[in-house]
Automatic annotation (TrEMBL):
Gene3D superfamilies: NusB-like, Vaccinia Virus protein VP39. This is RsmB/NOP family class I SAM-dependent RNA methyltransferase. Residues 171-452 form the SAM-dependent MTase RsmB/NOP-type domain. It comes from the Bacteria. GO terms for biological process: methylation. One of its GO terms (molecular function) is methyltransferase activity. The keyword Lipid biosynthesis does not apply.
Amino acid sequence: MSAPARRPAIATQDEAPGLASRRVAARLLAAVVEARTSLDGLTDAGGGHPEYRRLDARDRGLVKAILMAALRRRGTVEAILAACLDRPLPGKAASLRTLLHIGAAQILFLDVPDSAAVDTSVELARADPRNARFTGLVNAILRRVSREKEAFLARFDDPALDCPPWLFERLVAAYGEPRARAIALAHRRPAPLDLSVKADAAGWAERLGGEALATGTVRLPPLDRAVTELAGFAEGAWWVQDAAAALPARLLGEVSGSTVADLCAAPGGKTAQLAAAGARVSAFDISKSRMKRLQENFARLGLSAETHIGDLRALAAREPFDAVLLDAPCSSTGTIRRHPDVAYTKDAAEIGKLAGVQAALLAAAAGLVRPGGRLVFSNCSLDPVEGEAVVEAFLAARPDYARLPVRPAELPGLEEAVTSAGEVRTTPDMLDRGTPSRSGLDGFFAARLARLG
Ligand SMILES: C[S@@+](CC[C@H](N)C(=O)[O-])C[C@H]1O[C@@H](n2cnc3c(N)ncnc32)[C@H](O)[C@@H]1O
């Protein structure tokens, strides 16, 4: 039997060390910014970009770190590069721009030797016929970024720079300029690791070296290793869930023994909360692969729920539930701290389209609630068009529903998130815990409604 063919190595033998990871980082950055591809998909262990998957774990870690810095601080990098150029790069020089961004992001924000960042960008330019004649320019610009980095970072320090204009304008319109800047600043920072526990938040906080937030979440500083290595993962004691994402299920109140439909449930963070609280949960989602993840998560956690795969909008009439949670698909702009690509893969037009989908899903969800039952509508968008406005229009069309206002005392430590209408609106600049590595939370919206009896 002949030996199995080896996959071609991504780095050729005479390639400088570290070149393969930078080349992959440049490819993925271009895929996000130019082709608007989601970074989660590109770096997925199973279905991600083949060149990324061929890297070893250390190089994959470096690629992710470069991309996080290059996307979180894209506006700052762009401004500094512009300050180094006598005239703007031509629009069609996209691949050259990408190499400069990759190099500058490392020099400005990562703990790698500047010389390695410069040399690898220069080598990547040399290897590309489109860019070979610009190797001198790449070298000169990146060396200047390295020499003057402190002065450049002090000069270009406005957080709004790192928020693409379409998003900053919408944030200003929704929250006013000072708050929009505070949100943009929070977007620059890596998010803490938040866990929801089945029980004993204080005990798990102590065991893991974190803190138990008043809302029940266990918070750890950003992790530099896989969560699977933490105590309690294998035994299913907790699951990863941002502190804000843990709020909507709590708004349903006491659910033990009740029938609850979790709509748009996968991968199941909220379903797990409801099941752990003793509800008889039916989880619905359109995606087979995401539902498989929910089932895997439930197997690890030792929880159970009925699962249904299909489009909610085509759901046949069925016995109504005591309570329904609809965590609708959205632009995900509330998760930019963890997914900085969202700022570049989404746009204003998509927000309008998604609001239409949310309205249709909310109408479908409303038919599943028994008279006297509760309905929570939530999503992780920062945009009121996908939150407050959807609920406003729903209530105007459905006199058989009313808001069941959330009281500030229901969200201890997060009272500021309860709006005057009794809805929940979190933004990433909230929950200041003294140090950035322990502060902030995802942007979320949630409204609690009651079906009148
Ligand atoms: C924000 S995610 C849900 C996150 C989940 N609730 C959690 O806490 O883990 C939105 C989900 O909606 C599902 N979805 C989108 N359109 C749908 C539809 N028409 N019917 C049912 N599910 C849908 C997506 O597959 C996705 O899993």
